[in-house]
Amino acid sequence: MKPFDFVRAETVEEALAAGANGGRYIAGGTNLVDLMKLQVETPDKLVYISRLALDGVEQIDGGGVRIGALVPNSDLAAHPLIRTHYPMLSRALLAGASAQLRNKASVGGNLLQRTRCYYFYETAAACNKREPGSGCDAIGGFNRIHAVLGASASCIATHPSDMAVALRALDAIVVTALPEGGERRIALGDLYRLPGDTPEIETNLKPGELIVAIELPAPPPGRQLYRKVRDRASYAFALVSVAAAIAVENGVITSARLAFGGLAPMPWRSAEAEAALVGQPAGTDAFEAAAGALLKDARGYGHNDFKIVLARRTLIASLRDLTA
Amino acid sequence: MRITVNGQVREVEADPRTTLLDLLREYIGLTGAKKGCDHGQCGACTVLVDGRRINSCLSLAVMHEGDEVVTIEGLGTPDHLSPLQAAFLHHDGFQCGYCTPGQICSATAMLDEVAKGWASHVSDDLDRIELDDMEIRERMSGNICRCSAYPTIVAAIREVADAERLAEAAE
User: In terms of residue numbers, what domain contains B31?
Assistant: First the structure.
């Protein structure tokens, strides 16, 4: 691990002041410390933010919930407001990592965790995300876990979070504090950037900007689900995951929210897939149409070709379960 | 920095790069918590911080100023084993024993999580838990046993969980 300065912030103001000077925020540290050991990440300064008072979960106007950025993943999954009104979020959290990691990992840190692409982790490999301009060894390499949607010629890494997939389906808003003062509200879909030719820039956060909360609007109508398919039954990243909320009235789908993990560089939402469902009778024709809309631009890179088939089947199975 | 370990307040000076695991093993001399993978994947380093199980290898010691840490040495002693320590012995819940401190720390906190009503990935109902063997296995998936003593690990945890439930029912 490279040497670094360590600053303990007691307030958001202190954190922002330290963060404005090139500090890197650290809360649970379960991903960042790991990457620092491997020297994939080499921050000069860490700003420790876990003592900030950002650990509440409370109801807000309009029937939504505000979640402090430092709420541990395990506490969020167990919170009565979340498990009652946003069960897909509890399910997504519980499907991720191990109990030890969920106890430590914060909501904000979960959103900003880095990809688990093997070549990103291996400093001897070419990786445009880790070392811009060095190339991408995943393209043409072992890419079983890589993206089939939203990737580029520079990078085919996936975003690893389960939680963020549910948050995307729930139309979450990311609330940030800015070093120059004031707050910003960013739709979760706008937090992340597709890799294009700058895969090293993963979010639209400005230098020193600090995530302070996530806001969920009132829960979507209908039933919710988070379904995760992976190589082993527990403690593994998603090959494909689906977060879905579907409402059906008199056999016709009236509302559909769909987000996907394991497929893309960011938690993926498909307006076309949702549109293919709404107004249609709940049944195989509509489910197939939604899967077709989701995957019409999907592209495999060899080892991950199976994900296109798996995504279709996982979506259809999820929709069948939710409308049964 | 100041940190409480197994009830004892310690003043330690360490490089900021020191993980909590290395602080416990190399600076404080408590070698119960083990270094397996050193990347949060095996669970051998599991300790309790303020009552919660975490991977001590993935946490910097400086992030634990003022925290209360409990290691396997703090759960029981050879003369006064904790219920889980005794149950692991009784059921032979190990072979080489390297993962055992992590398994026992993890299981100790796991039973507390169940008592708090925390569901798991395999819970059918987020609001009601029945701690069957599937639940134990899922909840312990962050602790790997290279010798594959899983059946006896599950049996040991099951015994303590059942005893706690009986004790509660009797109260």
Answer: 2-75
Residue B165 pLDDT grade (very low, low, confident, very high; cuts 50, 70, 90): confident
CB B138 within 8 Å of CB A234? yes
Nearest to A234 among B116, B118, B121 (CB): B121
pLDDT of residue B171: 77
> Span B6-25, mean pLDDT?
97
What mean pLDDT is predicted for residues B103-119?
Answer: 97
pLDDT digits (tens, 9 = 90+) for B132-163: 999 999 999 999 999 999 999 999 999 999 99
**DSSP-derived 3-state class of residue A207:** coil
Give me the pLDDT at residue A269, please: 98
Asked if the Cβ–Cβ distance from A95 to B16 is below 8 Å, we say no
Residue B167 has pLDDT above 90, yes or no: no
CA nearest neighbour of B48 among B25, B29, B74: B74
CATH of the domain at B31: 3.10.20.30
3-state DSSP assignment of residue A174: strand
Please indicate whether, in this complex, the C-beta atoms of B16 and A234 are within 8 angstroms of each other.
no
Q: What is the mean pLDDT of chain B?
A: 97
B40–A74: do the CB atoms touch at under 8 Å?
Answer: no
User: What is the count of structural domains for chain B?
Assistant: 2
- Cα B4–chain centre separation: 17
Q: Taking Cα atoms as reference points, which of A255, A319, A268 lies closest to residue A289?
A: A319
How many residues in total does chain B contain? Answer: 171
Residue in A closest to B105 by C-alpha: A100
User: Domains of chain A, with CATH numbers?
Assistant: 5-50 (3.30.43.10), 223-323 (3.30.390.50)
Nearest CB to B126; choose among A48, A74, A83: A83
Q: Which residues of A touch B55 (CB under 8 A)?
A: 30, 100-101, 104
pLDDT at A85 (0 to 100):
98
Low-confidence ranges of chain A (pLDDT < 50): none
Spatial separation of the C-alpha atoms in residues A147 and A143, rounded to whole Å: 8
Domain boundary among B42, B75, B108: B75
Rounded to two decimals, the ipTM of the complex is 0.97
* Sequence letter at residue A240: V
> Pairing state of beta strands A5-8 and A45-48?
parallel
Q: Which long-range contacts (CB under 8 A, 24 or more apart) does A227-231 make?
A: A227/A314, A227/A317, A227/A318, A227/A321, A228/A92, A228/A95, A228/A162, A228/A261, A229/A262, A229/A310, A229/A314
Position B164 scores a pLDDT of 87
Same domain assignment for residues B37 and B104: no
CA A191 to chain centre: 10
Same domain, B87 and B144: yes
Based on the fold, state whether residues B70 and B99 are members of the same structural domain: no
